[in-house]
Amino acid sequence: MEDMTSAGNGTAAEVVIPVTGAALGAHLAIPPQAAGLVVFVHGSGSSRHSPRNQYVARYLRDAGLGTLLFDLLNEAEEGDRGNVFDIGLLAGRLSEVLSWVRGQQAARGLPVGLFGASTGAAAALWAAADAGDGVAAVVSRGGRPDLADGRLAAVRAPTLLIVGGLDHTVLELNRQAAAQLTCEHAVEVVPGATHLFPEPGTLQQAATLARDWLVRHVR
Q: What InterPro entries does its record include (predicted)?
Protein backbone atom coordinates (compact mmCIF):
# COMPACT_ATOMS: atom_id res chain seq x y z
CA MET A 1 0.00 0.00 0.00
CA GLU A 2 1.38 3.39 -0.96
CA ASP A 3 2.12 5.87 1.77
CA MET A 4 -0.60 8.50 1.94
CA THR A 5 0.08 12.18 2.29
CA SER A 6 -2.16 14.69 4.00
CA ALA A 7 -3.68 17.62 2.20
CA GLY A 8 -5.13 20.90 3.37
CA ASN A 9 -8.59 19.39 3.55
CA GLY A 10 -7.45 16.30 5.43
CA THR A 11 -7.19 12.67 4.38
CA ALA A 12 -9.97 10.16 3.67
CA ALA A 13 -9.30 6.90 1.87
CA GLU A 14 -10.24 3.26 1.58
CA VAL A 15 -7.01 1.36 2.12
CA VAL A 16 -5.70 -2.18 2.40
CA ILE A 17 -3.46 -2.95 5.38
CA PRO A 18 -0.96 -5.80 4.96
CA VAL A 19 -0.53 -7.97 8.06
CA THR A 20 0.93 -11.42 8.64
CA GLY A 21 -1.02 -13.87 6.51
CA ALA A 22 -3.74 -11.46 5.40
CA ALA A 23 -4.71 -8.13 3.86
CA LEU A 24 -7.33 -6.14 5.73
CA GLY A 25 -9.78 -3.61 4.32
CA ALA A 26 -9.90 -0.30 6.17
CA HIS A 27 -11.13 3.29 6.02
CA LEU A 28 -8.76 6.01 7.22
CA ALA A 29 -10.11 9.53 7.74
CA ILE A 30 -8.05 12.35 9.25
CA PRO A 31 -9.55 15.85 9.43
CA PRO A 32 -7.37 18.94 8.90
CA GLN A 33 -5.12 19.71 11.87
CA ALA A 34 -6.21 16.54 13.67
CA ALA A 35 -5.15 16.33 17.31
CA GLY A 36 -4.96 12.54 17.33
CA LEU A 37 -6.13 9.31 15.74
CA VAL A 38 -8.58 6.73 17.10
CA VAL A 39 -8.35 3.14 15.87
CA PHE A 40 -11.64 1.21 16.06
CA VAL A 41 -11.56 -2.44 17.05
CA HIS A 42 -14.91 -4.06 16.27
CA GLY A 43 -16.41 -7.04 18.01
CA SER A 44 -17.46 -10.50 16.95
CA GLY A 45 -19.55 -10.67 13.79
CA SER A 46 -18.93 -7.02 12.90
CA SER A 47 -16.67 -5.12 10.49
CA ARG A 48 -15.51 -1.66 9.52
CA HIS A 49 -19.00 -1.14 8.10
CA SER A 50 -20.64 -1.34 11.54
CA PRO A 51 -23.22 1.48 11.63
CA ARG A 52 -22.69 1.93 15.36
CA ASN A 53 -18.93 2.39 15.06
CA GLN A 54 -19.36 4.63 12.02
CA TYR A 55 -21.75 6.79 14.05
CA VAL A 56 -19.20 7.16 16.85
CA ALA A 57 -16.42 7.80 14.32
CA ARG A 58 -18.31 10.77 12.89
CA TYR A 59 -18.60 12.19 16.41
CA LEU A 60 -14.87 11.91 16.88
CA ARG A 61 -13.99 13.46 13.52
CA ASP A 62 -16.28 16.41 14.30
CA ALA A 63 -14.20 16.86 17.45
CA GLY A 64 -10.94 16.97 15.47
CA LEU A 65 -9.79 13.37 15.81
CA GLY A 66 -8.87 11.10 12.93
CA THR A 67 -10.37 7.62 12.72
CA LEU A 68 -9.32 4.25 11.34
CA LEU A 69 -11.99 1.57 10.97
CA PHE A 70 -10.64 -1.77 9.76
CA ASP A 71 -11.57 -5.43 9.50
CA LEU A 72 -9.79 -7.49 12.14
CA LEU A 73 -10.23 -10.66 10.09
CA ASN A 74 -10.59 -11.30 6.38
CA GLU A 75 -13.58 -13.16 4.98
CA ALA A 76 -11.91 -16.57 5.08
CA GLU A 77 -10.76 -16.11 8.68
CA GLU A 78 -14.21 -15.05 9.83
CA GLY A 79 -15.52 -18.45 8.74
CA ASP A 80 -13.71 -20.00 11.69
CA ARG A 81 -15.62 -18.90 14.80
CA GLY A 82 -12.60 -19.76 16.91
CA ASN A 83 -10.76 -16.80 15.38
CA VAL A 84 -13.51 -14.41 16.43
CA PHE A 85 -12.89 -15.18 20.11
CA ASP A 86 -9.11 -15.64 19.92
CA ILE A 87 -8.19 -12.45 21.77
CA GLY A 88 -4.45 -13.08 21.45
CA LEU A 89 -4.79 -13.36 17.67
CA LEU A 90 -6.94 -10.22 17.46
CA ALA A 91 -4.60 -8.23 19.70
CA GLY A 92 -1.60 -9.27 17.62
CA ARG A 93 -3.42 -8.27 14.46
CA LEU A 94 -4.26 -4.89 16.04
CA SER A 95 -0.61 -4.35 16.99
CA GLU A 96 0.40 -4.85 13.35
CA VAL A 97 -2.24 -2.35 12.26
CA LEU A 98 -0.95 0.18 14.78
CA SER A 99 2.57 -0.20 13.38
CA TRP A 100 1.20 0.30 9.86
CA VAL A 101 -0.78 3.41 10.66
CA ARG A 102 2.11 5.05 12.49
CA GLY A 103 4.13 4.66 9.32
CA GLN A 104 1.63 6.62 7.23
CA GLN A 105 2.69 10.20 6.62
CA ALA A 106 -0.84 11.50 7.16
CA ALA A 107 -0.90 9.99 10.67
CA ARG A 108 2.75 10.30 11.61
CA GLY A 109 3.28 11.83 15.03
CA LEU A 110 -0.40 11.75 16.01
CA PRO A 111 -1.25 10.35 19.47
CA VAL A 112 -3.26 7.15 19.10
CA GLY A 113 -6.33 6.02 21.03
CA LEU A 114 -8.32 2.80 20.78
CA PHE A 115 -12.09 2.32 20.67
CA GLY A 116 -13.22 -1.28 21.14
CA ALA A 117 -16.62 -2.95 21.14
CA SER A 118 -17.58 -6.44 22.37
CA THR A 119 -14.59 -8.80 21.97
CA GLY A 120 -12.72 -5.98 20.22
CA ALA A 121 -12.49 -4.18 23.55
CA ALA A 122 -10.51 -7.10 24.99
CA ALA A 123 -8.17 -7.01 21.99
CA ALA A 124 -7.74 -3.25 22.42
CA LEU A 125 -6.81 -3.60 26.10
CA TRP A 126 -4.46 -6.51 25.38
CA ALA A 127 -2.69 -4.50 22.69
CA ALA A 128 -2.58 -1.43 24.94
CA ALA A 129 -0.92 -3.51 27.66
CA ASP A 130 1.73 -4.65 25.17
CA ALA A 131 2.20 -1.15 23.74
CA GLY A 132 2.77 0.54 27.10
CA ASP A 133 2.88 4.29 26.58
CA GLY A 134 2.31 3.87 22.85
CA VAL A 135 -1.47 4.10 23.33
CA ALA A 136 -2.85 7.36 24.69
CA ALA A 137 -6.33 6.18 25.75
CA VAL A 138 -8.79 3.30 25.46
CA VAL A 139 -12.59 3.33 25.29
CA SER A 140 -14.77 0.23 25.45
CA ARG A 141 -18.44 0.30 24.41
CA GLY A 142 -20.45 -2.72 25.45
CA GLY A 143 -17.13 -4.50 25.63
CA ARG A 144 -15.77 -7.66 27.18
CA PRO A 145 -12.64 -6.39 28.94
CA ASP A 146 -12.78 -9.49 31.14
CA LEU A 147 -11.51 -11.50 28.15
CA ALA A 148 -8.19 -9.64 28.49
CA ASP A 149 -7.86 -11.03 32.01
CA GLY A 150 -4.22 -11.29 32.97
CA ARG A 151 -3.27 -8.24 30.89
CA LEU A 152 -5.50 -5.63 32.51
CA ALA A 153 -3.08 -4.64 35.28
CA ALA A 154 -0.42 -3.83 32.64
CA VAL A 155 -2.59 -1.29 30.81
CA ARG A 156 -1.22 2.22 31.30
CA ALA A 157 -3.57 4.14 29.02
CA PRO A 158 -6.52 5.90 30.68
CA THR A 159 -9.46 3.57 30.09
CA LEU A 160 -13.19 4.25 29.92
CA LEU A 161 -15.68 1.36 30.05
CA ILE A 162 -19.14 2.31 28.71
CA VAL A 163 -21.93 -0.18 29.41
CA GLY A 164 -25.70 -0.18 28.99
CA GLY A 165 -27.63 -0.09 32.24
CA LEU A 166 -29.83 -2.99 31.08
CA ASP A 167 -26.87 -5.09 29.90
CA HIS A 168 -26.68 -6.66 33.35
CA THR A 169 -24.22 -9.52 32.81
CA VAL A 170 -21.77 -7.43 30.77
CA LEU A 171 -22.02 -4.58 33.30
CA GLU A 172 -20.96 -6.90 36.10
CA LEU A 173 -18.08 -8.25 33.96
CA ASN A 174 -16.95 -4.68 33.28
CA ARG A 175 -16.99 -3.82 36.97
CA GLN A 176 -14.91 -6.89 37.73
CA ALA A 177 -12.45 -5.96 34.98
CA ALA A 178 -12.25 -2.36 36.21
CA ALA A 179 -11.18 -3.64 39.62
CA GLN A 180 -8.08 -5.13 37.94
CA LEU A 181 -7.06 -1.92 36.16
CA THR A 182 -4.28 0.09 37.80
CA CYS A 183 -4.38 2.97 35.28
CA GLU A 184 -6.76 5.92 35.37
CA HIS A 185 -10.15 4.44 34.56
CA ALA A 186 -13.91 4.85 34.87
CA VAL A 187 -17.08 2.85 34.28
CA GLU A 188 -19.92 4.86 32.74
CA VAL A 189 -23.41 3.35 32.69
CA VAL A 190 -25.89 4.54 30.05
CA PRO A 191 -29.36 4.21 31.61
CA GLY A 192 -31.93 2.22 29.66
CA ALA A 193 -29.43 0.81 27.15
CA THR A 194 -29.03 -2.84 26.24
CA HIS A 195 -25.92 -4.44 24.76
CA LEU A 196 -25.95 -2.82 21.29
CA PHE A 197 -27.37 0.54 22.41
CA PRO A 198 -30.38 0.41 20.02
CA GLU A 199 -32.66 2.40 22.31
CA PRO A 200 -33.34 6.01 21.21
CA GLY A 201 -30.61 8.40 22.34
CA THR A 202 -28.44 5.78 24.05
CA LEU A 203 -25.81 5.46 21.33
CA GLN A 204 -25.55 9.25 21.23
CA GLN A 205 -24.88 9.24 24.98
CA ALA A 206 -22.20 6.58 24.51
CA ALA A 207 -20.64 8.53 21.63
CA THR A 208 -20.55 11.70 23.72
CA LEU A 209 -18.87 9.91 26.62
CA ALA A 210 -16.31 8.37 24.25
CA ARG A 211 -15.63 11.67 22.51
CA ASP A 212 -15.08 13.55 25.76
CA TRP A 213 -12.71 10.90 27.14
CA LEU A 214 -10.69 10.62 23.94
CA VAL A 215 -10.47 14.36 23.34
CA ARG A 216 -9.27 14.82 26.90
CA HIS A 217 -6.60 12.13 26.79
CA VAL A 218 -5.57 11.79 23.16
CA ARG A 219 -5.04 15.52 22.68
A: AB_hydrolase_fold (IPR029058), Hydrolase_4 (IPR022742), NSL3/Tex30 (IPR026555)
